[in-house]
Design a protein that fits this description.
The protein is mostly beta strands. 0% of the residues lie in helices and 55% in strands. The chain is globular and about 25 Å long.
Length: 91
């Protein structure tokens, strides 16, 4: 059994829309229409349509599933966009 300090921070996932990408900063809106700013980790896993991507691939209005660090909700660990994601396919 691992000690509590050995555990990695848990992650949270949310669906949102891209407003703007600037450097490592991502501005998005949630379902309530509120804007949020996040810092995308240097080693964040970004996929677009099931293939490796980059922040440059995210355009204004794109619907994404974003995974953030539980310890820091403003730190993005992964971003996925594209119609291969069932909950995003209708948007």
């Amino acid at each position: 059994m691992k000690a509590k300090s050995d555990k990695l921070p848990e992650e949270g996932s949310s669906k949102c829309r891209v407003v703007k990408v600037s450097g490592d900063r991502l501005t998005s809106t949630c379902g309530k229409g509120e804007e949020h700013q996040h810092t995308v980790s240097k080693d964040a896993k970004i996929t677009c349509n099931g293939k490796p991507g980059s922040l440059a691939d995210l355009t204004e209005g794109s619907t994404i599933r974003m995974t953030t660090c539980q310890d820091d909700k403003n730190k993005v660990l992964a971003i996925d966009c594209g119609r291969h994601i069932r909950e995003l396919a209708t948007n």
